[in-house]
Amino acid sequence: MCLDDEARGTAEAAAGDDTRVRILDAPDVPTARLSGRRRARAQHHLLAAAGDVYVPGAVQAAIDLLDGPGPVVLGREGEPAGRTDLHETPQVAGCLRLGRVVLPKGESATFDDPDPDGASTAARRLRAGFTVTGRPAYLDAREATPPPHAVRRDPLPGLDARIRRDRAALDELPVQDLPAAHCHAAAGAVRALQPFLEHAEVATSDQWAALSAHARDLLAAAADRAADVPVLPRVLARLAADDRRDDLVALVDARRFAGDDFPTSVVDGEVHADLGVRVDAADLRLGEQETRLRARVQRLAAHEGELVLQVQGGLRHVAQTEAPRVSAVLSDGERRLAFAVSVADDPAVDQWLAEPEHDHPAGLVTARIPLDQLVPGSWQIALTWQTQGLERSGLVEEVDHQGSAGRSRLVVGDLGVHLRESPGGVRLRVERYAGDAPEHDVESVEIGESNLHVTVRGEADHVFLEGEGLHLDAVRQHHGVWAVPLVHDVWGLVERPLPTGSYRLHVERSRTRRPAVLAPRVLDRVPEETRTAAHRLRLLRGHADGLVVRLDPLLGADEVGARAQRRLQQAYRSVQEPLDERLVYFQSFTGQWANDHPLAIQQELARRRPDVRIRWAVSDSSANVPDGAEPVLIRSREWYDVLARAGHLVTNIELDRWFHRRPGQQLLQCFHGYPSKTMGLGLWRSRGLLPGHLEQQLDHTSRTWNALLTPDPAMDRYYRSEYAYDGRILALGYPRNDVLVSPHAHDLRMDTRHRLRIAPGQRAVLYAPTWRDDLATNFRAAEAVHHLDVEQAAAALGDDYVLLLRGHRFHAPGDRWGSRVVDVTTYPDVNHLILAADAAVLDYSSMRFDFALTGRPMVFLVPDLDDYDSRTRGFLWDFGETAPGPWVRDTAGVVAELRDVDGLARRWAEPIAAFNARYNRLQDGRASARVVEEFFSDLPDPV
């Protein structure tokens, strides 16, 4: 391999202890390939490059075909399988990657190509014919959107190489000999040009001239095949070809956070995109692939002598404004079976298709097939969909595995029926079946306001619900009926409805636990949705026909889903009515609990001004709202109304991108941690964000604030520089820390230790690893990193210790109780945990500034300090200045330091006191009062 240090680290981590993997140093790609060939003993080779993705079974599919003539091509969607050539299957040239071609080992010319993708070599080898695998086996990760916190690398330094590569590949497919393949290859190159076009904003004049000319050449070479390129990269290429750089940059900026949906119109049987840019209508036309039929089977059941299939469907990027005309056919080779269908409205179709710019109200298709016409076979389900002058035909390709369509088997008479997804579409498999019906546990489910009433077959010792880190025991009632609670009080604070999430029902018999299996008549019902007083509750199918209870926020039908939310956001932006000066909005994180700075400020405000109406944002009915406030459900119509009309808003995270502060609104950004890590412009620039992207980030952040809370005046300069912020700063200390130095701190400590079952005399150690940006899967989720083996540490420390494991607010909760370990990720207030602990194990979390106020010792587990500082996040100033405690690299180091907590505390008492004097001088228990007096000074007088 030819790797830089970062790629080498990734490769070594992926290889692990697998001795079949060899990582070799090489100065360039040809040398790396040649070195690999010399060491390989196989008769064929596959030369992968960064971005090549092989789906499960891909390599085996190629191996099965290796005895045939010529190379084997790992197929992509839409490419027919079998022996072929570029005359018969020219679309293969649309993705020229050497990493999808399996070649005989002896072909030395393969190793001379300096292009990592080997496009021209792949084109040359395909000219003589090839075999395509019989299943979609290859994906190109270069076409995927990078994760939100990934570093955006500037591709422009590689533009010249890219142009040479495209030209060389096209030269290998002469237009006079292979005209169709030549066009397909050019169209594929247009699509692959998108990353370069998206960086046009920072291109030099020479780079722009080259990019513009290359886009023009590729579009000309693609000819009518340019219509196969998705509309966005096609329009970007057209703007570049026409030398419209400003328009191109504006379009990139406009689409940066817009997702993959956009408004469209249907005129004379053609779908045109509205991208807000002036180009020829032909360039805005969407091809059939972009407006293809999407369909999935949701339900499979038998009723009154008929097999019933319910299918959700719609055309991508096309609003379903009228009931479509739908026909359906089952096919199995030469056999075909047509049957009647009906079409109905179902809001769940809109929610599944998730297109914010398009309505799909009429998309539920019900097919009824007489059982006496059903014969054994493996049947594909084909639909023809007609709407607005459009007609699209296609196979049903998806199964809703949470609905009855995913059931293991439906037994009807002597037939067994089930649905399976395959590369060639969903298969309805009908087989002779003489076995017994599978055993089941759940005979029926009835939904109450605060319980599920589940009838369990036979004798059961124990029934319980698990999910979201919770375990809820059912109560035996009578005749096999168990009451499964939908409320909980995990921490002994207050009984609340269960939080949003998925919960699975289990049953225990003779000390054997397993997921509870649904009876066929219960499976027939799923998915089934019911509204209780606290939840939108859905009964779903789980693995192996088990029962999953999905609880969601109590939003209305016109508030759920991407399309409904887009409508509400548009209505929000149009609000003109005056602000309500006595209405105050509070939000802490994403609304699971009332805590952090907003809680401390709200409690002080409610004490001083009971006449003010306070609305507290909640994620669902499980969130507990403090005294003096009323809940408002995030994403509800009422929530948008409150955000539009509140005179004052207090939040510790950024509000959504569609939010704009209305004239006269006062918005206090509290943040939620002491500033020490790289943030704002410094962080964004390190991620490779373009200038236009930086401006959008500032629009979303500092330009929405008109007041900012900081813990000390010395910190103000970082916010001024990193957020280009010139507004009001309240450098008044941190309100959430008032409780840590209050007269009630000891009582709260003892109360929390009691709730957490910490025995008198036990040492409680709080372990709180921080968020890792490089592991983020979206803006508010990431895999947790645990350099501390908590079970090993707990075992080594013994019964006199208990470890409190606290994940970041964006980490998913785990099991609550373990051996001397308590997962406190879902505990609502971290201050309680800080007070309860006798010591803390931290890394780079700003919690060290809060914990230091207790005067108790901290151990810093920082094995990846250099990597975190240079690659993952980085610091505003030297980490060593803000980490008053021993630094260790592993679990053994942590255990060694914690064996004598009292001695540890004595050794570090003076450094911690100096640390507090420097960083926490305003944490005096009066910060909340100061903030309320300052920020709410313009409230109207009480009536």
From the helix content, strand content and strand pairing, which structural class follows? alpha/beta
Question: Given the structure, what is the number of helices?
Answer: 27
What form results from the Cα inertia axes? Answer: globular
Which ranges are low-confidence, i.e. pLDDT below 50, for 5 or more consecutive residues?
772-784, 808-819
Our measurement of the CA-to-CA distance between the termini, rounded to an integer number of angstroms, reads 75 Å
Mean pLDDT level: 92
Short structural summary:
Strands 12, 13, 16, 17, 19, 20 and 21 form a seven-stranded antiparallel sheet that branches. The chain contains 27 helices and 49 strands.
Helices, strands, pairings?
Elements: H1 5-15, H2 29-39, E1 44-46, E2 52-54, H3 58-63, E3 72-73, E4 82-84, E5 101-104, H4 119-126, E6 130-132, E7 138-140, H5 159-171, H6 179-192, H7 194-198, H8 205-222, H9 231-241, H10 245-255, E8 264-267, E9 270-273, H11 281-284, E10 293-303, E11 306-315, E12 325-332, E13 335-339, E14 341-345, H12 347-353, E15 362-370, E16 377-387, E17 390-395, E18 398-399, E19 410-412, E20 415-420, E21 427-432, E22 442-447, E23 451-456, E24 462-467, E25 470-473, E26 475-476, E27 481-485, E28 487-488, E29 496-497, E30 501-509, E31 512-515, H13 520-523, E32 528-531, E33 536-541, E34 547-552, H14 562-573, E35 580-587, H15 596-608, E36 613-618, E37 630-633, H16 637-645, E38 646-651, E39 666-669, H17 680-686, H18 691-700, E40 707-710, H19 716-722, E41 729-731, H20 745-755, E42 763-768, E43 776-778, E44 781-782, H21 790-797, E45 801-805, E46 821-823, H22 830-836, E47 839-842, H23 847-851, E48 858-861, H24 865-872, E49 887-888, H25 891-898, H26 901-919, H27 927-935
Parallel strand pairs: 3-6, 10-18, 35-36, 35-38, 36-37, 38-39, 39-40, 40-41, 42-45, 42-47, 45-46, 47-48, 48-49
Antiparallel strand pairs: 1-5, 2-7, 3-5, 4-6, 8-9, 10-11, 11-15, 12-13, 12-16, 14-15, 16-17, 16-21, 19-20, 20-21, 22-23, 23-27, 24-25, 24-30, 26-27, 28-29, 30-31, 30-34, 32-33, 33-34, 43-44
Helix pairs in contact: 4-5, 6-8, 8-9, 14-16, 15-27, 20-22, 21-25
